[in-house]
Specification:
eight-stranded mixed sheet, alpha/beta, about 850 residues, globular, eight-stranded parallel β-barrel, single chain
Length: about 850
């Protein structure tokens, strides 16, 4: 088979052409590239040695066709011939054909078994096909050996009429399949576009088939003359009947959406995408009961304290009832949110503070309770961690529940008579958990974040949600028709028929995709060209890991251990932690488990650790590894538990918020001390346990080469990294759109990290929310990530996305994304 070499000044261009050509023939033709030069400052150029090596890589006795772009590419190709033997040079042909069109035509001809002269003729005629189509000429091309003979007296021609159903007609890939199939038969196959009244053209010529301009709905006449004519027509008929393997129902609606709906329309609102899905329904406003109280002095402080305790006891019973209902409706993992609320009510620090407030100020229970709840809530308002920041919602939720009981205010009624989209300023977790998903078709609020407990519950319930929209939505009259898209974060007031049709189509496509994703969830995530990417889960409890495994997780890429330390009066003991780590590892059944050491402090305080001084900017404060190094005994206790649990399991240690090499070395010293203590005590552990770090601080990216020499793996946390790079808070609706992990600045840092890791021979994963976005998957694959770690529910969709991609095309997409100037342009790129 003829080999193809692509010579270009741009490596990315050559990779793209090769990927496109490979898709035409499913990798049947050997293709090599010689493109670009190893100069980071000026990578454009060609190298004669590269060209000669590429020729050698695909050399065969059938010949090698070399296609070049311009200028020095020709000189490099000519010079490359000098490095070959005389016998080899005679088999190599330099072709002046256009690079892209020529390569496609050449590989199709080569796959059909054409000789080198025929392959070169097809390549040279490639532009004629495009010119013919653009000019509207309906006559067949005259290239190479395209003359048609319709005289076959010994074998009368057979013919069939077909209607083309492919959504895009015979575009490049189906046309290539048609030509490759036709070329396999001895019979002469001719094809005519009856709808456009073209002449008959050869079915084994990609250029001639292209000139037919076949679109969806066009009628074709296909004839075959020869000994295997019936078999040829039957095979071609199957291609058309099966839409050439293309799925016309599972249209890429995100692409359509970006093309047709993204421009602003009347009544369009933008917000934060919080829960995927589409809803179209009348709006119904939800207004929580306003609680008002008056602060006053009391003589009998003990009675006030008893009133508060009684209210807390009733609140506890109510939350337990909500927990039971939520467990049934959304599962134990998400219902555990209300476990945290129960612990909040039992928090002795909080209760002591309220008791003290009543005693010292001699005020009523309502005023004392609200003052303490406000103080606790304010300490959490600046949280940016996706796992912890929603604690504010729980504090407010519990606070309101107790306050309603103290003041005698009943909660607002959330029971709807007819299906509707719920519009509100905000929803508490309790509100959201109580929603009837058959009646609440969507949620639209003016505040909230995608990582709040309310958003998590909405996603679990499968209710589309758009948060943080303009407050004008609160002035809509009940019954006003609204449409919302929880994936894009957009809502439309009284949408026109065009938008409604697009949303309905997107909803149907999403449902189809969900069903298809489940079928591949438990298979390895392998691209079309054989690259396997591990898909792990981010978890924060034992119940989470059970959901992860059920959804096809190949391991845990991030175990957030903070859940062991929160909502209690003292740090967990070594034995408590050991039991949890072992339980999770057992469920994983020898799958990898990456345990992130305690990521707390600064903006994430523990109530049983006294803060020596307030931090003006907790985002840049004493948190993560800094906190652990400042509390070595706390750190050692956790490391001991992790090491003890490592026996017989694939457990790895991951250090958070690393900013310097010194921090890594200091942590490794403490780890070494713990290992020595366990060894001396005769306690077994995995002596070869791997240690990695989170890359979520810009300085860690800048020092990635040095850090890679210290650890066994990297895990990129794009949630924090994007915030630090863009200097914004993603939970703040005013800047949420700025803090986008798809911004080229963030993507370039991901690329730099991957390159440093691979140069050092270590693996690199990504565990931020970006990993769970199927639209971002091609970019992440193209940047070279070895693993993606996502929330358990996203695993099927991400695996399906990987199955549909190839590494080559992903590299081209990633390279283009890096050259964009905004996150919006990156999103346009991956949505088309």
């Amino acid at each position: 088979m003829v080999g193809i070499v692509i010579v270009s000044h741009s490596k990315q261009l050559a990779l793209g052409v090769r990927e496109l050509a490979i898709q035409m023939v499913q990798g049947e033709v050997p293709i090599a590239i010689a493109a670009g030069i190893e100069d980071p400052e000026n990578p454009l150029g060609t190298d004669a040695i590269q060209v000669s090596e590429a020729i050698a890589a695909v050399f065969c006795e059938d010949g090698v066709l070399v296609l070049m772009d311009l200028g020095s590419a020709l000189l490099s190709a000519e010079m490359a011939l000098e490095f070959l033997s005389t016998a080899q040079r005679q088999k190599v042909y330099l072709c002046e054909a256009p690079l892209v069109e020529g390569a496609i035509a050449a590989v199709v001809a080569a796959a059909a078994g054409r000789d080198i002269q025929q392959v070169m003729a097809e390549a040279r005629g490639a532009l004629v096909a495009k010119a013919t189509q653009l000019s509207g000429v309906s006559s067949p091309l005259s290239i190479g050996d395209s003359n048609i003979s319709t005289s076959h007296p010994e074998s009368p021609p057979r013919e069939i009429h077909l209607i083309v159903s492919n959504r895009l007609g015979l575009h490049a890939r189906p046309a290539a399949q048609f030509v490759a199939t036709a070329a396999r038969f001895q019979s002469q196959i001719l094809v005519q576009n009856l709808t456009k009244n073209t002449q008959l053209v050869r079915g084994d010529s990609i250029n001639q088939v292209t000139t037919l301009g076949v679109r969806q709905g066009h009628e074709l006449l296909i004839t075959a003359s020869g000994s295997d004519a019936d078999a040829a027509l039957a095979t071609l008929q199957v291609l058309f009947a099966t839409n050439f393997g293309e799925d016309n129902t599972a249209v890429n609606y995100p692409a359509v959406w970006q093309d047709e709906v993204t421009p602003a329309t009347k009544g369009e609102l933008s917000g934060i995408p919080a829960s995927g899905g589409v809803a179209i329904a009348p709006v119904v406003h939800y207004q929580p009961t306003q609680i008002s109280f008056t602060q006053y002095n009391v003589d009998d402080v003990e009675t006030e304290w008893q009133r508060l305790q009684a209210a807390i006891q009733i609140a506890r019973q109510q939350i337990q009832a909500v927990f039971s209902q939520a467990s049934f409706q959304i599962g134990d993992a998400e219902a555990a949110i209300f476990d945290a609320q129960l612990l909040f009510l039992e928090d002795p620090v909080l209760l002591e503070a309220v008791h003290e407030y009543i005693l010292e100020h001699q005020i009523n229970a309502e005023a004392a309770w609200q003052a303490v709840v406000d103080r606790v809530a304010s300490s959490y308002h600046t949280l940016e961690d996706s796992y912890l920041q929603e604690r504010v919602d729980d504090v407010v939720d519990v606070g309101l529940r107790v306050m309603r009981l103290l003041t005698g205010n009943a909660p607002a009624d959330l029971h709807l008579q007819e299906p509707a989209i719920l519009v509100a300023s905000d929803l508490t977790p309790s509100d959201t958990a109580g929603l009837d998903r058959t009646k609440v078709l969507g949620i639209c609020t003016t505040s909230g974040s995608a990582t709040s407990h309310s958003a998590i519950i909405a996603r679990t319930l499968g209710i589309p949600a758009v948060l943080g929209v303009d407050a004008e939505v609160l002035h809509l009259a009940d019954g006003t028709l609204m449409a919302l898209d929880g994936e894009s974060g957009k809502a439309w007031v009284e949408p026109n028929s065009h938008i409604r049709e697009q949303l309905q189509a997107k909803r149907e496509a999403w449902q189809t995709a969900q069903q298809q994703a489940q079928t591949t969830a438990h298979q390895p995530a392998i691209t079309r060209d054989g690259r396997q990417v591990e898909v792990f889960a981010n978890i924060g409890s034992i119940s989470d890991v059970q959901v992860a495994v059920a959804n096809g997780a190949e391991g845990v890429g991030l175990l957030r251990t903070e859940f062991l330390y929160l909502d209690r009066t003292s740090a967990p003991t070594e034995e408590e932690q050991l039991r949890v780590y072992q339980a999770i590892a057992e469920v994983l059944d020898n799958r990898p488990l990456m345990i992130r050491t305690l990521d707390i402090g600064g903006d994430k305080p523990l109530p049983y650790f006294r803060v020596e001084f307030p931090e003006a900017n907790p985002f840049l404060g004493w948190r993560g590894i800094r906190f652990c190094l400042g509390h070595p005994e706390l750190f050692k206790t956790q490391l001991r538990a992790i090491l003890r649990a490592s026996v017989g399991h694939q457990i790895k240690i991951m250090l958070p918020m690393i900013a310097t090499v010194t921090e890594v070395r200091a942590a490794k010293v403490i780890l070494g001390e713990v290992q020595a203590e366990l060894h001396q005590a005769g306690i077994p552990f995995d002596t070869a346990i791997k240690v990695g770090i989170m890359i979520e601080v810009p300085s860690a990216v800048a020092m990635a080469e040095q850090l890679a020499a210290e650890v066994d793996f990297f895990s990129i946390g794009t949630n924090d990294l994007s915030q630090y790079i863009m200097a914004g808070d993603r939970t703040n609706p005013r800047v949420a759109n700025l803090v986008d992990a798809l911004h080229p600045a963030v993507l370039r840092m991901v690329q730099q990290t991957v390159q440093a890791a691979h140069a050092a021979g270590i693996s690199v994963g990504l565990c931020g929310e970006l990993a769970a976005d199927p639209l971002a998957t091609p970019i992440l694959l193209g940047l070279g990530l070895d693993e993606l770690s996502v929330n358990p529910q996203s695993i099927p969709a991400i695996k399906q996305a990987i199955h549909q991609l190839s590494l080559g095309e992903s590299e081209v997409i990633a390279a283009s994304a890096l050259q964009q100037d905004s996150a919006a342009h990156v999103r346009e790129l991956i949505s088309t």
